[in-house]
């Protein structure tokens, strides 16, 4: 339990649910951009 030692605690199930309800992804727009050859780069890190 990392948060017990001073790390962060977040309920990822809640985060995904709340984000999808309040800020849905524009998948139609994304599909159109990918069809035009656009790329999507993501970076995730753990600090």
UniProtKB/TrEMBL annotation:
Protein name: Phospholipase, patatin family
